[in-house]
Amino acid sequence: MEANKVAAAAERRSGCGLLTVMFGRRGLWSKKSTAADNGSQKSTSTAATATSNIQFTKSPGTELKKPRDDHKKVSAEPVQNKKIQSQQNQNQRSVVPSKPSSNQYPNNHQLGSYESHQQQQQQRSSYNNNSNSVDPYRGGGQRKVPREAIGLSGELESMFTDHQKARGANGLVRASSSNVMLYGNLGNLNQTGPVTAGVNYGNNNGYGVKRTTMAAATKSQDQSGSLCRAISTRMDPETLKIMGNEDYKNGNFAEALALYDAAIAIDPNKAAYRSNKSAALTALGRILDAVFECREAIRIEPYYHRAHHRLGNLYLRLGEVEKSIYHFKHSGPEADSEDIAKAKTVQTKLNKCTEAKRLRDWNGLITETTNTISAGADAAPQVYALLAEALLKTHRHQEADEALSRCPVFDVDTSTRYYGPVGYAGFLVVRAQVHLASGRFDEAVEAIQRAGKLDGNNREVIMVSRRAQAVTEARFRGNELFKAGRFQEACAAYGEGLDNDPRNSVLLCNRAACRTKLGQFDKAVEDCTAALSVRPGYGKARLRRADCNSKIGKWELAVGDYEILRKETPEDEQVTRGLSEAQQQLMKRRGQDS
């Protein structure tokens, strides 16, 4: 209990306080409800170190007992009792098994539809009537279908249905009511001839399979491997974990995650399953989800050293150094002095970022944030946000976009749950500004509107929202006027947008297009140059500037732009044609000068 209270207290501590400076009154590490510590959501990045800590233990699987073949011991009936026995059999066939209770299975939501099960049983009853056979569970005795059989069939039915929804029916064949086989493993069935959709193989419940190509069947077999292996284990959680470990070692992280999820669904109170799931999520780049699973593993087993060590590494990547050090100290033999030393190094660099932000030393902030990411905080959104903000302040819009694109993209709900509404709103403000500077107006408006819902009283949110709306409306109005051929009015509309965002590359390039139509080539070149100063890779602005320089006879400048464009888009015929013409004109001019 003492360790739990100390761990809970450490979880509530704020981090380095970095975003307090960046986003005003609260940082990204805002206090969140304790309920957020127990779940998992979705979130993308890479994890090179996750493969070393996973557990690989084995335990034998379990087998379900097969029902006795009582139907083989049917006693002969007197001739005069056949009619009475037939009526009794029909009455017994109409008996409906009781619906299993919700407490009977820990993962009741994975059970197959009860109504579907009833329908299957009725179909089997009809089949038995036609074939004059005796069902050991329905005919000739007083037994009802056991609940265990219903539960297993339901779970397998659910897995089969989920696979069909996710990957289609190709590659899986229903062999009986409770078994699924890979298409390539159909035993003695003829697989070489054409198969028609809707063909049944020996029972009334068969699923038809439509043949495509052998390549498609092989691909489907690979994708369905984990599913069929999971079915063959009869849902033993330890066997599922061993299979997940095998997939994890082979780099099949998504398959491993599915198997760990299946094990957890059966036994949700096993810390090792949660910890291994965290490793798979880390490898898939879902860092926040991995944190939630590690927290749950430690809640189940407070002195689980491996989970503490894994959580310490995750917190370090997220830039939460204090929490990282706490869990390293509680990871026993799993951690060493290098882990804590690395965490302290990241903390030092984060402090320098905070100081540079306070002094508004944007170039210094670019250096310090880059160093912090290299030191180990490579999945910390607040660090990437600081870097992007500093690049925007120094009018390096393209680099800001590239920096933010390297930040792991976390699910909105997961991020809000982890950082809190105010903390995540601060990150969205920076993202909206980067979208706006890169000409993604709709994305900018969407991001800032979401930030407003999370923290509507934030003054920076309000200011960026107004600017995004004004620029977006100006751009839309200018585009409509340009399409109508009203170039002078379109030029003025783009200018109104530039009053709110003077270095917006898209508005500058659009105004250059209007000025080109009006014959104002020198001014068009100026606008294109301004756009390229913040976004050197903006190909449309460079092409427009090359065209304008050609029109005013500045062939050398035109050749320079065309050559850059040809390296970037060698297949573009317009660029090739423009470069050829500019080179010929330049050679003529040089010949005349000589």
TrEMBL record:
Residues 43-52, 81-92, 113-133 have a biased composition (Low complexity). InterPro entries: TPR-like_helical_dom_sf (IPR011990), TPR_2 (IPR013105), TPR_rpt (IPR019734), TTL1-4 (IPR044534). Residues 31-42, 93-111 have a biased composition (Polar residues). It holds the Pfam family TPR_1. Coiled coil: none annotated. Residues 63-75 have a biased composition (Basic and acidic residues). This is Inactive TPR repeat-containing thioredoxin TTL3-like isoform X1. TPR repeats lie at residues 237-270, 425-458. Keywords: Repeat, TPR repeat. Residues 31-144, 570-594 are annotated as: Disordered. The gene is LOC104762683.
